[in-house]
Specification:
Strand content: under 5%
Radius of gyration: 18 Å
Number of domains: 1
Number of helices: 10
Number of strands: 2
CATH class: Mainly Alpha
Order of helices and strands: EHHHHHHHHHHE
Shape: globular
CATH topology: Ribonucleotide Reductase, subunit A
Strand order of the largest sheet: 1-2
CATH architecture: Orthogonal Bundle
Low-confidence stretches: none
Helix content: 55-70%
Mean pLDDT: 94
Distance between the termini: 10 Å
């Protein structure tokens, strides 16, 4: 069992922030705004998935998972709430979130399905977010010049993703989830996640009147495909998920643990690990 504490981040997201809050960079701002737009609906799906997954375990096995699931749910619910406040500010800026409705529509298709499917989707998506988080924490220039409270939001969220990166995966295995389906769901999640992220980022850039600017796509090329680019640095960790011997705990998490330790004054412990 992996203990998962629940914290509250000490920032105020009721105050507006600049339209290009990420160091004045239109692409990086639009990209992170798009990610945030997916979180409230996505994280509610994760919460519902692991809760249903634990209930599907034999009674004698539920007790061993319950404390970790409780911490996982607490962290995801906190992320959901703060990104909801962040997204509300984006809506006031005139941004339209089209990604969320697609998530909700797809989730409805799983109603009544074997709970292992939802847990498998959660495990795949959690791996996605964990390797994104690792890239963010290891590449400080991604948030260079970002407003301090928003930089704290993304670094805190990334650090906690590293903490609970194994929860859904271990639950899937405990449920007897099929390995072929585990890999299949990773490919499906990759397709939907990448295309939805691109669509929402483009929409955000169009609203910002930056879509057709050369500087926007120069920034995109550097951020995604540069020497420390997101795609280049995360491809191998992404591919490792498809190996039969894969486990999320093998891919670190030290950077997140260090950030949480060094920035403890920015958070308040809500619930200690059970």
């Amino acid at each position: 069992m992996n203990p998962v504490p629940v914290r509250r981040l000490l920032i105020d997201l009721n105050e507006p922030f600049d339209r290009r809050w990420n160091g004045g960079d239109a692409f990086r701002t639009a990209f992170f705004n798009a990610l945030s737009m997916s979180f409230p609906a996505g994280e509610q799906f994760f919460i519902d998935a692991v809760r249903a997954g634990v209930k599907a375990l034999p009674p004698q096995a539920q007790g061993g998972f319950a404390p970790e699931i409780q911490g996982f749910v607490g962290q995801e619910a906190t992320h959901r709430r703060l990104h909801g406040l962040f997204n509300a500010q984006l809506a006031r800026q005139g941004h339209v979130n089209t990604w969320e409705s697609r998530i909700v529509r797809r989730n409805r298709r799983l109603a009544g399905a074997d709970p292992r499917h939802a847990v498998g989707i959660t495990a795949a998506t959690e791996h996605f977010t964990a390797i994104f988080a690792e890239h963010l924490l290891s590449t400080p220039k991604v948030l260079a010049g970002a407003e301090p409270r928003l930089r704290a939001l993304w670094e805190w969220h990334s650090s906690e993703e590293s903490e609970h990166r194994s929860t859904a995966f271990d639950l899937y295995r405990e449920l007897g989830g099929d390995e072929a389906w585990r890999c299949r769901w990773m490919r499906v999640v990759t397709l939907y996640f990448a295309t939805d992220l691109l669509r929402q980022t483009v929409r955000n850039l169009w609203h910002d009147r930056a879509l057709l600017r050369l500087s926007t796509w120069r920034s995109a090329g550097t951020y995604l495909f540069g020497s420390h680019g997101l795609v280049r640095r995360t491809y191998r960790p992404w591919r490792s998920y498809l190996r039969p011997d894969f486990h999320p705990s093998a891919q670190g998490g030290e950077l997140g643990a260090r950030w949480l330790r060094d920035n403890a004054a920015k958070t308040v412990l809500v619930a200690a690990p059970a």
